[in-house]
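To: structure desk
From: M.T.
Subject: fold request, one chain
Message: Could you run this one when you get a chance? Sequence is below, nothing fancy, just the single chain.
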Amino acid sequence: MSHIKQIFYPTSRSYYITFVNASDEEFLIEPPDYLLLNFAGFEQPPTDIQMSKAPYQDGKTLVDQIFDERVITLEFAIFGDTQQEIFDKRLSVNQRFNPKLGMGILKFEQVDGGTYYVDVITKSVNFVKSTSSSHNIAVVQLIAPNPFWYDPTQWESIMVGFSGGFSFPFSFPVSFGTVGTQLTISNAGNVETPVLIYFYGEVVNPVMQNLTTDEDITIAQTVDDGDILIINTAFGEKSVMILSGGEYTNAFEYVDPDSVFWKLQPGSNNLRYTVASEGENAQCRIYYYHRYSGL
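Reply: Done. Structure tokens follow.
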């Protein structure tokens, strides 16, 4: 299709952009059917600077700084040899970017291998007819309620309290710690990231501390052999569940009231895992992603 060169002539390719909807249908913006013309919203989103003011105070006091939701715009050409073919591809765009399907994933893949995801939902899909009969222009706007990009690799670290199944804590991909109940985890992202903590029974009164932030999560309960206690520290998704016999049960009542659902800070985080006692199969697994404020 030589008409592609009429609007865009890339000399080299350094990245690929793919949308995957909630039905697991992929939409790759690639010739000969589609050609990316422009994109926006990949950088760091605007920040809501929160401040307070007391009577007679000069100026204000900084309280916090919070990122707004991410707004992403994709502009691409739709090619076809006939107007009907272009129309059919427009229908395909509407199908893939249907917001009624729910949240999807936008993937940004660099040719050198670096890949980043962000969870999005479609806000609008608009089409603009070109002066050329060979193509239309699509403008798709996506919203990421959680604005952070993340590395799709889920990292895993394993720790034991005393005499469990491993003689030292380690991580996948490979990241060795020191012998004992302490482990240093590196968050390669530039923002804090939540964790999933899995306590495998039998463990009595497990405690997971982030020594870097001086915060801990304490469970005043015995997790029986064969059961798993799962903690999620993500904002809006905080939960404590026990998985036993294939069924999940709410276990928030066993959390010590002074506990803090901590997150991994950018850089090194020193963690400590302790239990009152444990069985032969006991261990603790921590799962997390590296997150980024912008690309």
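Reply (cont.): Residues 45 and 97 are 22 Å apart (CA to CA). Let me know if you need anything else for the meeting.
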